[in-house]
């Protein structure tokens, strides 16, 4: 039987802790995942929208689940018409690349090795997409659009996460 390394198993989405090599036969055939409830996703979106309002911004906030599917979208009354789509794309990009989009925006600038990632359909390399983790596991992402720049959008998202951190087990 061919031996697989822990990294190879992780690449297939399995979380398996091992101090050495395991065979494919030893890998668990099923694994459990965590998901946000619609209520938690809505709480996160509301807390993030509040953080944006407190900072004086009219924004849209999107929350996607662990598969990148939209769970909640809130748009403040004076947020621009582009902001709902932009917020969703920021959340989806963060989730897809498993990184906050402010970091991705810096690492994919023209002339950098990863610049080609900007050409992937649906990707939006602008700050404001932040990962959501619970118990060390990635459960989704939140995206914000409408603040005066990606860093401001990201700050709103992080404050929204802080506001609900007691609901995210660690």
Describe it.
With 170 residues, the protein is an alpha+beta fold. The chain folds into two domains: 1-32, no CATH class; 38-167, Haem-degrading domain (Beta-Lactamase), CATH 3.30.450.150. 35% of the residues lie in helices and 18% in strands. The protein contains five helices and six strands; from the N terminus they run βαβαββααββα. The chain has a four-stranded antiparallel β-sheet. A two-stranded antiparallel ribbon has the order 1-2. The N and C termini lie far apart (37 Å).
Offer a few descriptive terms.
single chain, 170 residues, alpha+beta, Beta-Lactamase, 2 domains, 4-stranded antiparallel beta sheet, two-stranded antiparallel sheet, 5 helices, 35% helix
- Write down the CATH class of the largest domain: Alpha Beta
> For the residues shown, what is the average pLDDT?
87
Number of helices: 5
**Corresponding CATH architecture of the largest domain:** 2-Layer Sandwich
- Low-confidence runs of at least 5 consecutive residues: 1-19
Major beta-sheet overview: 4 strands, antiparallel
Q: Shape, please?
A: globular
State which percent range the strand residues make up: 15-25%
How many separate domains? 2
CATH superfamily membership of the largest domain, which one? Haem-degrading domain
Taking Cα atoms only, what radius of gyration do you get, to the nearest Å? Answer: 18 Å
Helix content: 25-40%
What's the N-to-C terminus distance? 37 Å
Question: Strand-and-helix sequence, N→C?
Answer: EHEHEEHHEEH
**Record field, number of beta strands:** 6
Structural class: alpha+beta
Largest sheet strand order: 4-3-6-5
CATH fold group of the largest domain: Beta-Lactamase
């Amino acid at each position: 039987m061919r031996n697989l390394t822990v990294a190879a198993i992780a690449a297939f989405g399995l979380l398996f802790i091992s101090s050495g090599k395991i065979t494919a036969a030893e890998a668990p055939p099923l694994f459990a995942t965590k998901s946000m409830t619609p209520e938690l996703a809505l709480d996160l979106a509301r807390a993030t929208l509040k953080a944006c309002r407190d900072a004086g911004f009219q924004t849209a906030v999107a929350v996607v689940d662990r598969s990148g599917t939209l769970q909640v979208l809130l748009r403040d009354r004076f947020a621009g018409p582009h902001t709902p789509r932009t917020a969703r794309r920021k959340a989806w990009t963060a989730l897809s690349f498993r990184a906050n989009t402010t970091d991705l925006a810096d690492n994919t600038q023209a002339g950098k090795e990863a610049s080609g990632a900007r050409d992937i359909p649906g990707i939006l390399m602008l700050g404001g997409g932040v990962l959501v983790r619970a118990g060390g596991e990635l459960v989704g992402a939140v995206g914000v659009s409408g603040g005066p720049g990606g860093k401001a959008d990201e700050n709103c998202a992080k404050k929204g996460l802080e506001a609900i951190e007691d609901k995210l087990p660690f």
